Give the backbone structure.
Amino acid sequence: MRRLLTLPRLALFALLLTAGFLASAHFGGFAQNAQTDRGIVADLISKALSSDTSQVSIGEVNGALSSDVEIRDIVLSDRDGVWLRLDRVRLIWTRSALLLRRLDVDRLEIGKLEILRKPAPQPAGAAPPNDGPILPELPLKVILRAFQLNELVLGEPVVGVAARLGATGAARLGPPNEGLDLKFEARRLDMGGTFNVDLSFVPDSTRLRLAAKLDEPAGGLISKAAGLPGEPPVKLDLDGDGPLDSFRSNLTFTAGPTIGADGSATLNRAGTERQLALALDARIEGLMPAPAAPVFAGSTRLDGTVGFADDGGVDIRNLALVSALARLDVLGRYKADKTLDLRVTAASRPNAEGRTVASGTEIGKLAFDATIRGPVAGPTVAARLDAQDAKLPAGQFAKVGLTFNATPSGTIGEPGTRIALTSDGEATGIALTDKALARAVGDKVTFTLRGTGNDDATADFETLRLALSGVELDYKGKLGQARILGQLKAVLPDLARLSGLAGRPLGGRADIAADLDATPRLNNYAATLNGKAERLATGDAVLDRLLAGSLTLGGKVGALAGDYTVSGLKVAGQHATFTADGALGRNASDLKLALALPDLKRADPRLSGRGDVNAEITGPLNRLDAKARIAVANATALARPIPRLAIDAVVKDLQGTLDSHVTLSGEIDAKPATGTIALNRQPDDGWNLSQLDLAIGSVRLDGAVTLDPASRAAGRLTLAARNLDDLSALALTKLGGQLDADINLTTPEGRQNIDLTARGSRLAGPSVSVDKLDATIGAKDIYGHPMLDAAIAVDRAVAAGETISAIRFDSKGAPDASAFTLSANARGFALKGAGKLVPGEPLKLEIASFDARRDGRAITLANPATFSFPASGVEIAGLALAIDGGRVTLDGKAGETLDLRFAARDVPLSAARIAAPSLNLSGTLNAQAQVQGRPDALSGPWSLKIARLVTPETQQAGLPPVEIAGQGAFKGNATSVEATVNAGRGASLTLRGTAPLSATGALSLAAQGRVDAALANTMLAVNGQRLTGAVAVDMRAEGTPTAPRLSGNATLSNGSFTDALQGVRLTNMRARVAANGDNLTIEGASASTPNGGTISASGQVKVDPAAGFPGTIRIRGNRAQLVSSGLVTAVAGLDLDISGPLAQRPRIGGRIDVVSLEVSVPDRLPASLRPVDGVKHVNARGTAAARLAAARKAQKARGKRGRAAPAFDAALAFTVSAPNRVFIRGRGIDAELGGAIRVGGTLAAPALDGGFELRRGRLSVLTQRLDFSRGRLTFAGGLIPELDFVAETRAADVTAKVIVSGPADQPAFAFTSEPQLPQDEVLSRLLFARASGSLSAFQAVQLAQAAAQFAGGGGDDTFERLRKSLGVDNLDIQMGEGGPTVGASRYISDNVSVGVKVGTKPEDSGVSVGIDVTKRLKLQAETGADGSAAVGIGAEWEY
């Protein structure tokens, strides 16, 4: 087995060396030759340090058989090369002392010992370790008078950091009556740190004396090797003295403020055993993981007694570890027959009403119980954890339960022994403080383990599963240091839950599987990957367009002893594919990477064509080289052709000099594109851009620049662009104009100088244009004592729609100051300023004057102001602005610490129009604040008052001027707040609490007051809607601004809602919404409809904007009149559920049961129903303007339909059921329908299946009646249904057919016949059974009246008014041979109707009952006034 060369082993090395000399003398005296001596010593060293896979090389042995022996150049190697070097070992000893049975070493000196790394792991099948003694038992006394290690060099791979140490010492080992005496001192050479040990032990008297001290600074070897959090300084002081039957020791250990120990241990004889008593105060909070650390905060006490019996047994009596919050007890025995019977228990310690409370931590219950029983070589372990109702700084949970069992079948480690492993865990009610982590974890975590431990230090897992809300991990197979062979699956059902961790909005689902085959102890790993993602969204617009919601993953990756391989790795979306094949090796690499973009339009709609990126990485792993090519072919950008374009790059030494050579070649918009760039990192970490030569069309950029480690640049860059439009295709935005620029950078005597000249005309870019630019700038020593000469002139510039006729900036440099002036002029706007830049310590900017004016308003500098720039930040003195009669002042300093004073007095808000003309505000601002301290520890008071605030929004809402007043004080990274907002009858709110000054700070605000629901009418009025009511608010917000936790409620009372356009009216509206954390609960919401029906709602909504406010809302309606307009009146029962992300893509499901639906076909169509083409609304105001704006927005949205998904849409999955009582009346139509409509699809694209079919119906044309043979009512969107009716009859010499189609508010009537006749002829035959040419004058008038009826010009609706006044569903008047007959019927339930018929004869009068058995099957019963009775069954089909 391989052995590390440690300091004790070095001492052992000396003994081996001496033993070799003794063996040499025994086998031939001291007269052996040097070669033989060298062989004996080499054999001894090899036995101590070598193995089958380790080689030892010895350079030279001097004086092997003398009293002064020296060995040089010892090298240890393994399969990975040299891992240890020792330059020199010297041993000075007294040979004659051997005659006195004493090994007497005067000095053992080791020169420089280098341990470069840890030795390579043993390969599988390596020879077992040699358990024989390294040093034979020597019957002599050993004395080491002086030991010295000059330098021990540890490589970074050994302990995680490179280190240099030295050591000295001495040792004496004698017979049992003398024992061992050891002194050892070590010190850190490259930084502070010492370690001292003084040890003696006499076996005869069992007396032990021990003194050890360690002192190392932060970042030392102990803190790094032990992995102590924060790598704190470490101090250790351990001492003890006395015989083992009465021994006492003391310990003091400190490693930072949260890790340490202080106490004593005593060992005393009691009969047939020694008893160890422990009394130790410890601080172990820093060693615990973050969730458990608060449980062990403060001091933790370790007390107990352990008995060590003379027969080898150990009895643990009352060993307890006690913290302020918890207690852990260990009880049990280790028996002489090598069996265990131990029990470990832990429990929380209540200290406040049955709960455990300390340092921001609360625990309702904590109970842990574990038993370890059976042979020491194979005990059975059973453990259980139960924790409830805990609140920790990291979060809280309601319950945690965990069980674990391990049952071995024999002695652990022996061939054939198996260990049955089972574990189950569940945590519920989780609410983590970290919002991103909380969303990923969710409120529940489960863990399941089923496996078998093997005799080769591996385990076979049938199930190893960890399930969180955002991630599910599942492993099946073998797992261990010797071998990993199995499959790991990861299921991410909702990537949106990982958005916070990823730092970007994610969406979709992902499934990933990895088939693993690894041998960890040999650093050999391999994985075959397979995965896919659906509905994927990454938050990056370009990437999302390329992936188009889909991603697949496949391929193999591997690692072997520092070499990495990739085979067939492929990551593909719908429109992009990335592949990788090859290897990265310590000696050589050959990795090929490729990205294919077959359609660049998918990345950016302004592009088209194909794009490819190919790269090849070569060279050893520590000095990689790369070649890459980016190419596009047959492409366009901004509709400009790019037949070919390529960028080729060759980069040497990626991790070092980054020596790069890049070339550009191709053609853009029929113009050549060429270029060369050469760049490399300098040995002093500076950069050298030795060549820059780019030419694209008429634009050329060339030059060369160097950058030193202090970021000082030297070189020259020139730009000559006759037409910047030649760059538009590459910039993907329209550019234009001519620009010539020259930049000269120099560093005389280490000073940075810049000279710039620029001339441009007709320059154009996104939202900005400049007719003429002329700039000359000379800046000297910009990082030291700057001096500025500049003349900048801009004529007629347009920025963000604002036209500026002239901008001038002039500066004249001088050693004492650079004086400058600034002016700008635009229509109605003028700006002037002057000042000077004063070099020195510190640099100062003195503003002498400033004046900005627009439309009679002005902002002026009241007095000169100074900005100073010391190393600590910026100092402001005398800054005062006069703003339209008001005044703003600011002075103080800002930097690592703040000391600022701000005041605003009587500042008119209307002055904001000077900077932003479209900002239409009025009111007056008064404010003051004093800010002191570091940005994270501020202090100082502030106050704010805004009087008579009026905005366009408050005006539209009809609110009076708003009054706002507030005050508070900064404290740390937060501020106290006490504010009021009063808007008369519209709103009155009070805000109190603490608000953070950052998005992650603690929030604690309470809001109370009232809000008039009518404030929403500004938005609702556009659609003819109106809301009334009062909302009482009593809310509180805790947590952080990005993750608020709400509590309280908002209550709506005396509310009403009307939609005049759709005929919706709700009254007696009441609602109560309660907040709890990030959940809003609709505890109750109800409203009444005009017919006495009711609508109610309940549910929950999560305040999570990134997830679209997920929740569930249930809506119920009882005989609610949903619509009541001149066209449609609907009464229905509702049972609807709305779930999912309510603000993005919710699902609407359930059913609507129609009680009655009446569609009235208007008898007249007003002439103004259709607007006259070409009419424009001039100077629209108020609601009219808002409606026109909404119409334009809707028209624009319709124009974009199909190109972009709406921000909000809902999935539809509900049924509208109406077995009957769907009536169509008006314009001669009297029909009843029934059926069901299944609504699917989305709001943007609904999919309807089914409709309302005809039950009965007729069409009245003057005195004629036609029964409908077909009838259907459908909804294509909106509340106005579509009609599709057909009535057919024999009239005179033709078969007449009447077709009614189109929307109910504008139906179309068509009259056709066989044989074909004009519509007026068909109508004439239908009414009078004769041609129109043979009609009487009276009949002609009736024909005209009927034509007007069906054309929408009006008709006689007396019959319909009579039916409504009687309150019946069906009214029928017939003229028979025996005289007139009047019939009326009304539904008394969903499918049962009762009718009465009265005629001039008894046989024409009676009572009838109709039952709709099915859609097409009807049962009818009738009793006549003459005593007759009849029962019949009717069936009807369309054909």
Remarks:
- Residues 7-26 form the longest helix (20 residues).
- The longest strand covers residues 1044-1059.
